[in-house]
Amino acid sequence: MSKKAFGIDIGGSGIKGAPVDLDTGTLAADRVRIATPQPSTPDAVAEAVAELIGSFDISEDMPIGVTFPAVIKDGVALTAANVDRSWIGTDVDALLTERTGHDVFVVNDADAAGIAEMEFGAGRKTSGVVMVVTLGTGVGSATFVDGTLVPNTELGHVLLHGDSAEKYMASSIREREDLDWETWAGRLQEYFSHIEFLFSPTRFVIGGGVSKKHKKFLPLLDLKTETVPAKLRNEAGIVGAAALAHAEEKALRKAAKKAEKKAKKKAGEKTADAKKSDKKSGKKSAKASTDKKSGNKKSGNKKSGKRTGSSSSKG
Ligand code: BGC
Questions:
Q1: Centre of ligand 1 from the C-alpha of residue 36, in Å
Q2: Fold classification of 4-109 (topology level)
Q3: How far is the CA of 166 from the centre of ligand 1 (A)?
C-alpha cells in the first residue's frame, strides 16, 4: 500500500489541495483550487479549507499538512507579511484541526516547498547548506543543513536598500513594475550575492511560479553557488505539506507507543513490587506466627533479626 497524506497550500489568491502519494512525491488525484476569501481572515480561510477537504473522499485518519505564508512556531502564526494581519497570534494548527476534524500540521509555505524539493526534487541527496528560495508574491526561504530543516529562516526579509528584500525583488514586483528580465535579474543578482556572502551555501534551489521561466533569468546570474531551478514548481507546497504531515504523524505515533510501553513497564514494575512486598509481608506474618509459636522475642526487630541471620549463615 502506498504512503499517502493530504496537502493544502494556502496562498494569497488561491487555496489548493490534493492527496499526495509519498512514495513518488506526486499528486494522487487532481488538485482542487478555491479562491482565497477576501478579506482572508482566519475564520473565512478555515471555512474554505474545510470546504476543500470536504470535496475529497478521504478517511478521517489521513493526516493533513497545510502551508501558510508566515512564521509558524508550534502551530501559531507569528507574522502576516502578505496575509490579513488578524492571523498574527492565531493557533492555525488548532483552528484547522478543530474545523476539519483531521489531524492538521501547519508549516511555513517556503519550508513546505523546501521539504518537497529535498525529498523529491532539486535538493535530493544533497548535503551541506541547501537554500530553497521561492519567488512569488513575497520571497520565502527554506534552509537545510545536511538535510535537516532550519525552520522559518525568512530570508525574503533581509534588508536591501533599506527595506525587506522581497519588496525589491519578488516576482510580484517584476510584474507590478513591469521590469524586463535583465533588470529583474540585476535585482536578483544583488539579493543572491548578499545571501551567498552571508551563508556560503552549497546550492540554491529557485522556486515559485516564475521558476518555470528559469531560462529567462537564471543564466543571467553570476554566483559562486550552484543555482538550479526547483523541480516541483506549483505542486511543491502541497507535496511538502503532505510529507511533513506524514512524518509528524509517524513521530507522534512512535512517541505515543514509547510512552505506552514505558507506562506498561512502570505498571509491571509496580505489580512486581507489590507482589514482592506481598510475599515479604506474607513471609513476615508466617514468621511471626512461627515465632509466636516458638516464643522468639526478637522477631519484631527486623534489623537484629537479619544481622543474626547473616552472621549465622557465615558461620
Ligand atoms: C513571508 C514568508 C513566506 C514568503 C512566501 C514572506 O513575505 O514572510 O513567511 O514564506 O512571503 O510566501
A1: 16
A2: Nucleotidyltransferase; domain 5 (3.30.420)
A3: 9
Whether ligand 1 lies within 6 angstroms of the CB of 114 is answered as no
pTM of the model: 0.85
Q: Alpha-carbon distance 38 to 36, whole Å?
A: 6
Q: Summarize the confidence of residues 173-191 as an average pLDDT.
A: 98
Cell numbers 505542486: residue:
235
CA quadruple 79, 81, 82, 84: dihedral sign? positive
| C-beta of 123 in contact with ligand 1 (< 6 A) | no
Task: Report whether pLDDT(165) > 50.
Answer: yes
Closest to 18 (Cα-Cα) out of 69, 76, 58: 58
pLDDT tens digits along 286-303: 555 544 444 443 333 333
Q: Give pLDDT, residue 270.
A: 79
Instruction: Considering the domain delimited by 122-230, tell me its CATH architecture.
Output: 2-Layer Sandwich (3.30)
The pLDDT-based confidence of 1 (bands split at 50, 70, 90) is low
Same fold, 4-109 and 122-230: yes
**Separation of 144 CA from ligand 1 center, angstroms?**
17
- Provide the mean pLDDT of the chain: 89
Domain limits, the chain = 4-109, 122-230
Q: Bigger pLDDT: 5 or 271?
A: 5
What is the pLDDT at residue 283?
59
User: CB under 8 Å to 80, separation ≥6 — which residues?
Assistant: 70, 86, 87, 88
From the CB of 154, is ligand 1 less than 6 Å away?
yes
Give the whole-angstrom CA distance, residue 263 versus residue 240: 34
